[in-house]
Amino acid sequence: MRIAMIGSGYVGLVSGTCLADFGHQVVCVDKDPAKIEALNAGRMPIYEPGLDALVAENVQQGRLSFTTELKPAVAAADAVFIAVGTPSRRGDGFADLSFVFAAAREIAEAVDGFTVVVTKSTVPVGTGDEVERIIREIRPDAEVSVASNPEFLREGAAIGDFKRPDRIVVGAEDARAEEVLREIYRPLFLNQAPILVTGRRTAELTKYAANAFLATKITFINEIADLCEQVGADVQQVARGIGLDNRIGAKFLHAGPGYGGSCFPKDTLALVKTAQDAGTPVRLVETVVAVNDQRKRAMARKVVLACGGSVRGKTIAVLGLTFKPNTDDMRDAPALSIITGLQDAGAQVRAYDPEGMEAAKPLLRDVAYARDAYDCAEGADALVIVTEWNAFRALDLARLAQVMAGRVLVDLRNVYDHASVQRHGFHYVSIGRPGSG
Ligand code: NAD
């Protein structure tokens, strides 16, 4: 199959590269010339483990190329995927579909011969109808079928997720589109990946329902963690105790500073807005959004409390800025609210992240960036672990105790256990475990 991938960000670049690796002929398009220039020079515009090698191999095999020129890529394609961003619209929280519709218009002008246009971006239910309308209006003659194929990969584990997905969801309104998408994903059937073919609207909504459910699960365990702190229970054991029940499942039951990232915050909000417009508010998700928003800022208060009630004039070392490990993505990372909250309370913040510091710099003011965890901790009154990068899972606590001015360790990811940290003289605060608050 000849495939054009419109948008070469976290999703487009990984999906395009993996599809090339399946043996398809893929052109990744992006309107950002810096991204395409970097890719053509063999440099990755994002950090994603294993991506550089997979890109290099497929480029070398002649199956993968990068361009800013949408027209020829689309004209030659059997299938065109739209993988552009759908951020929250400023002001009202609806999904901003301007990039999707702009891509649809450009695609309409370029299509040649029967082409399946597939929306991979996360888009509100009904967007496929609008994409189809736009294309038909501009090119009534075009032989186009519009399908939905939401993406479920996780940053940091994106290649494995794309190649071994739990399921592939295809929303198609006709047999031709279904056939093309089945052919594209055929290499995955060897891995027994189930393909679920639904109507287009169902596929669109499935993506939001999945993200809202996962966000709810995280928020649920976070509230249970708060309760644990008040009543002297241990959230990690509660999570294990419920997670071993197959009906519940153990994943997404790690209490922490609240969910962030480029998907959950905007997708839960967009679902709330869609449901309100449809006259069937999803009140549970509305509450999840509100609880999670408050939680991030509450984490700053937790640090202040751990420091004895005031951080004015104190230096706080923050380890981990990205919303999760193994990515450089800073979009809606809890670290942003936590650091701002600490600064508002009068603290000086020093931070270190293995991959996220470049992306963090334009989003945070007056933060000093360190070379590594120990450099970050040097002279600090308190150390806060915000993201559980591997590099922070086995810190030399004796060395930390030596270089720090204070002995406060706030572990917002429950990486350490009480006894071992206290042995080094630290006041240790974690989430939802005895002595956490
Ligand atoms: P991103 O911002 O990393 O990438 C989007 C890219 O599209 C950018 O490089 C931008 O320059 C490019 N672009 C925009 N308009 C274009 C146009 N007309 N022509 C060519 N290129 C254009 O975004 P992302 O994180 O890859 O997310 C893309 C979509 O996938 C979103 O809808 C998101 O919700 C969804 N999604 C993301 C993830 C994730 O983990 N990031 C997972 C599943 C789904």
Automatic annotation (TrEMBL):
Database matches in SMART domains: UDPG_MGDP_dh_C
InterPro entries: 6-PGluconate_DH-like_C_sf, NAD(P)-bd_dom_sf, UDP-Glc/GDP-Man, UDP-Glc/GDP-Man_DH_C, UDP-Glc/GDP-Man_DH_C_sf, UDP-Glc/GDP-Man_DH_dimer, UDP-Glc/GDP-Man_DH_N, UDPglc_DH_bac
Gene: rkpK_2
Listed Pfam families: UDPG_MGDP_dh, UDPG_MGDP_dh_C, UDPG_MGDP_dh_N
Record domain UDP-glucose/GDP-mannose dehydrogenase C-terminal: where: 317-418
Coiled coil: none
Keyword Phosphoprotein: no
Superkingdom of the source species: Bacteria
This protein's name: UDP-glucose 6-dehydrogenase
Active-site residue numbers: C263 (nucleophile)
Key words of the record: NAD, Oxidoreductase
GO BP annotations listed: polysaccharide biosynthetic process
Entry EC number(s): 1.1.1.22
Native organism: Methylobacterium gregans
Residues that hold substrate according to the record: F152, L153, R154, E155, K207, F252, L253, H254, A255, G256, G260, K324
Record-listed NAD(+) binding positions: D30, K35, T86, T122, E155, K266, R331
Pathways involved: Nucleotide-sugar biosynthesis; UDP-alpha-D-glucuronate biosynthesis; UDP-alpha-D-glucuronate from UDP-alpha-D-glucose: step 1/1
